[in-house]
Amino acid sequence: MPERTNPRHAAFDYRSFAAYFVTICAHDRRCLFGMIRRGRM
Predict the structure, then answer these.
(1) CB–CB of 31/37 below 8 Å?
(2) Which residues are bridge partners to 37 per DSSP?
(3) Within 13 Å and on the Cβ side, how many CA atoms surround 22?
């Protein structure tokens, strides 16, 4: 099994306050997590 590389950026302080954008895609792109209507979840 190949050795994994560290995905973290060495110069970033991960302990500080920050906002993150997470993208989740379900099998066949089905809407399992909710619907967006009028710009709201």
Answers:
(1) no
(2) 40
(3) 4
What does DSSP assign to residue 32?
-
Query: Is 90 exceeded by the pLDDT of residue 38?
Result: yes
pTM of the model: 0.30
- Predicted confidence (pLDDT) per residue in 12-32, tens digit: 888 888 888 888 888 888 888
CB 33 within 8 A of CB 24: yes
**Which element (helix H / strand E) includes 17?**
none
Cα 19 from Cα 9, distance rounded (Å): 16
- At 24, the amino acid letter reads I
Nearest-Å Rg of the Cα atoms of the chain is 17
